[in-house]
Amino acid sequence: MKKFVLMFIMLFFVVSNPLLAKTEIVVSYAYTWFNDLHKKLKEEFEKENSDITIKFVAPAQNYEEQSARLLRQKVINKLPDVSFNSYSYLPILVSKNIAQPINDYITDVYKMEFSANTFNLTTINKNIYGIPFANSLPVVYYNMDLVKKAQWNKDLPKTWEEVFELAKKINTLQGKSGVYFAETDTWLILALALENGGKLLYDNKVDFSQAAWQETFKILSEFHTKAKMPSIKRTEAITSFYAGNLGILIQTSAALTMTNKSINFPLQLGVFPGVKDNGKLPVGGSVVMLTSDKNKEAAMKYIKFVTGNASKYIPQYTGYMTSNIKANQDLKDFFTKNPNYTIAPSQMNLIDVWPSFPGNNALKATNTLWINAEKLLMGESIDYKAVAKKANDEINKLLP
After folding, report:
1. Which residue of 81, 135, 205, 367 pairs with 321 in a disulfide if CB–CB is 3.0 to 4.6 A?
2. Which helix (H) or strand (E) holds 54?
């Protein structure tokens, strides 16, 4: 009886003592390919912080869905404590008071742990709203078996004309397709415009009559007219590439680890072709941000942990890059043994902000650009000038 009373008292003390109770941090992110990485980070963090536990929300399918989910959760006051979101949707999340400013946690000394200008990507109106987590750039994946069979004896393509030339050679191989532009929303489309010196907005409106955008819509059309890109969905194209039936896949560097696990042929990555002297490339990937004042100190401890030296796991588990200098130093041997992981970082001098549409219709405007671009990629239209004009008019009606 005394033993039972003693156990009851001890249990009461543990439950009622806030110093011993664990703090739960709710974390939200997009894409299932992040699952293993987040599990690893959770495991390492909880080893060092026994008083904090991490609870994940089921991952959203993509960054657009993730942002839309946060907008809904804001309305019902059910936001997570921490969220991983794309750079492109950060402005709208700031405008809706979802992303919280974290200036007090980011000292000049702390900034020295990161690559130069890292926090420019997450600063809006002089407030810092997040720490860059996983950075990606557009790259090109080549099935070197098919490149060799197509008798391509030159360096890997540096221009879009060379990409289309190689694709046409691969198309002649029995049962093989040359190239696929594996867009997920409009990131790769924006990369085409930015590499030609363009920008998303001109006086707060789109202007697809600009030379950079005319070139963008022309290239999108030529994937069909010149390279005969197959009219299939992105998931089908990636499956085809894994199976060795597609020669060239243009997509994010973030998919490298998953690709390595899924193929049985020699893979080589190449830089995103056609970047002009004044061109840039939009940074892809995600920023980790505070989305709730609840458990703020514990949440920031987690945010700083995953963007600190623990971010060395990011390239190994995904193919994304980390901005943390120490983590990159720890990855020297990894990069030496895995040269494909160095292709995206080799373009870091081109990195620029992932621009986004302003206003409440930002998600609709993004979708409108993609729908029109897809018409060219799938061959529903070959009049790229008319498609550009239509997209221009439809998007500007959505902008404030």
Report:
1. 135
2. strand 52-56
